[in-house]
């Protein structure tokens, strides 16, 4: 006869997963020797109960840890001002690049080590795992925060080895200098893939077509690409990256970009749009094109990093500006390299001439009227440090990565706040401190209220009087974007 204890035990055991063992015991004929084994069964079941208890404990512990990890991750994301929206995305890598060995191939890991990068920047923490998932992406992150590496590394990983037949990735940049820079940055990490810029490929159509078949990544401006795309087969394209994704609209290239996107529409493409400033209407245009895009925003739209010390100086008129430059030189505040932004090519030439006359600073200027080779040489000299001060137009405001620029001077007040964000973003890059001084005259007062908003979003102390100023009307802002303020000639001061 079974004791109550045994029945209870067997009853309990039959509900357990490993039923078979217990059922065998119930069905087997009973014997003296078996009854002697009863304590063993009890012990066995007791151990099982203990094991279940401890499994439950482990599960509870794991759930607790998972919750803690998510909480910790969310706290860190909040601290780093990272916002992500979208479904089913890989978790960010919030520690160091070594952790990426589970994601990136060994070659890329080796190149990363050589580059000296140790810790991913916030945009790299989140964008790299998402691009590896081949998801459509809209990413907004501050100037100098490493967006190029954020899209270049995972794209190189996704493309793996060289394949003949035509490029699998198209990278678009709005200016030649930026395309050159992207080319260098991709090549920094690349060993296997063949990357070309459109201007390196022969303009003669047949030769272009032939060269097309042997490359993996093509870097171009949308305009140049539109001139040549008809002679090649686009069916190999899998990825499209648009750097400075809002600049095309600023340049009035909306129709061209739409045309480009229409051409690519029938293909299965993963899109990546990157910028430090992506106005909502532009974002909406891109969104229409994408299926379930993931959006990453670091900081905010038009966000200037807090490590850039932004200063405003009232100089009343054009004469005041040149005096202020002399003061800054005399006060020893012009530690090179210095970038100075003006609103036109003629003003760039004129200011260079004025500063040359002082004979204290090695100065040059750069603008779109110069031959591309001359521009390349000037950029090179500024990189090397043979030019200390470079006076430029807004052609150099976006994307250009001059190392360690100490000071940006907005000699002429920028035509829009988007331009302001990009100009001052030429300093304070790659984790360094930077300084930006913006001169304003009576002609610029109507734009100060908008600047106050940018300063506020960037976490700066903003003098209260700036918020008392009237907000410039939309029409006025638009007018200023299109037609720069008429200013007195620099040479007449
Ligand atoms: N993880 C990293 N660690 C150290 N330096 C980095 C890292 N990632 C990028 N950099 C460096 O930071 C600098 C700025 O990078 P990058 O030009 O990609 O910035 P960006 O976000 O594209 O800026 P912009 O909006 O002005 O184009 C470069 O000199 C780059 O080499």
Can you put this structure into words, describing what you see?
Helix 5 (122-132) runs parallel beside helix 6 and helix 6 crosses helix 7. The chain has 19 helices and 14 strands. The radius of gyration is 31 Å and the shape is globular. Strands 1-8-2-7-6-3-5-4 form an eight-stranded mixed sheet, with helices on both faces. A six-stranded parallel sheet has the order 9-14-13-10-12-11, sandwiched between helices. The protein has helices at residues 4-14, 19-27, 32-79, 106-115, 122-132, 147-159, 176-189, 205-212, 222-228, 247-250, 254-264, 280-289, 318-330, 345-358, 372-384, 417-424, 448-457, 464-468, 474-482; strands at 82-85, 137-140, 169-172, 195-197, 217-220, 239-242, 270-275, 294-298, 308-316, 338-341, 363-366, 389-392, 407-410, 434-441. It has two domains: 68-298, Rossmann fold, CATH 3.40.50.300; 308-492, 3-Layer(aba) Sandwich (Rossmann fold). The chain is α/β, with parallel strands linked by helices. Residues 1-36 have low confidence and may be disordered. Bound molecules: adenosine-5'-triphosphate (ATP). Adenosine-5'-triphosphate binds next to helix 6.
Key terms:
493 residues; alpha/beta; Rossmann fold; 2 domains; eight-stranded mixed sheet; six-stranded parallel sheet; 19 helices; globular; binds adenosine-5'-triphosphate
């Amino acid at each position: 006869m079974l004791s109550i204890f045994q029945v209870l035990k067997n009853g309990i055991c039959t509900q357990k997963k490993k039923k078979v063992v217990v059922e065998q015991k119930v069905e087997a004929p009973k014997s003296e020797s078996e009854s002697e084994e009863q304590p063993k069964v009890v012990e066995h079941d007791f151990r099982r109960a203990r094991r279940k208890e401890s499994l439950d404990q482990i599960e509870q512990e794991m759930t607790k840890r998972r919750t803690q990890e998510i909480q910790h991750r969310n706290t860190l994301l909040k601290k780093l001002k990272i916002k992500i929206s979208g479904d089913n995305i890989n978790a960010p890598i919030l520690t160091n690049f070594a952790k990426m060995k589970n994601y990136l191939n060994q070659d890329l890991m080796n190149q990363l080590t050589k580059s000296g990068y140790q810790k991913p920047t916030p945009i790299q923490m989140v964008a790299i795992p998402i691009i590896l998932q081949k998801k459509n992406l809209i990413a907004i992150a501050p100037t100098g925060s490493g967006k190029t590496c954020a899209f270049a590394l995972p794209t190189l990983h996704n493309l793996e080895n060289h394949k003949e037949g035509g490029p699998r990735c198209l990278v678009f940049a709005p200016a030649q200098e930026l395309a050159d820079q992207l080319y260098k940055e991709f090549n920094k990490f690349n060993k296997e893939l063949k990357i070309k810029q459109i201007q390196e490929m022969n303009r003669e159509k047949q030769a272009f077509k032939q060269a097309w078949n042997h490359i993996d990544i093509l870097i171009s401006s949308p305009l140049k690409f539109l001139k040549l795309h008809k002679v090649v087969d686009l069916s190999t394209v899998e990825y499209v990256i648009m750097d400075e994704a809002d600049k095309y609209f600023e340049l009035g290239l909306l129709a061209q970009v739409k045309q480009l996107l229409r051409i690519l529409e029938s293909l299965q493409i993963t899109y990546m749009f990157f910028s430090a400033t992506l106005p909502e209407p532009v974002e909406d245009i891109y969104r229409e094109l994408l299926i379930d895009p993931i959006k990453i925003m670091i900081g905010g739209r038009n966000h200037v990093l807090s490590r850039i010390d932004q200063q405003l100086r009232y100089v009343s008129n054009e004469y005041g500006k040149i005096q202020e430059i002399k003061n800054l030189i005399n006060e020893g505040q012009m530690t090179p390299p210095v970038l100075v932004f003006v609103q036109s090519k003629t003003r760039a030439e004129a200011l260079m001439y004025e500063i040359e006359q002082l004979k204290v600073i090695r100065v040059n200027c750069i603008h779109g009227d110069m031959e591309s080779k001359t521009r390349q040489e000037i950029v090179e000299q500024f990189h090397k440090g043979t030019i200390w001060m470079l006076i430029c137009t807004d052609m150099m405001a976006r994307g250009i990565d001059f190392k360690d620029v100490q000071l940006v001077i907005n000699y002429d007040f920028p035509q829009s706040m988007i331009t302001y964000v990009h100009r001052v973003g030429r300093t304070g890059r790659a984790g360094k401190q930077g300084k930006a001084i913006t001169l304003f005259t009576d002609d610029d007062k109507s734009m100060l209220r908008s600047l106050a908003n940018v300063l506020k979003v960037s976490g700066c102390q903003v003098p209260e009087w700036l918020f008392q100023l009237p907000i410039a009307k939309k029409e006025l802002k638009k007018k200023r974007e299109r037609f720069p303020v008429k200013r007195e000639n620099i040479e007449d001061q």
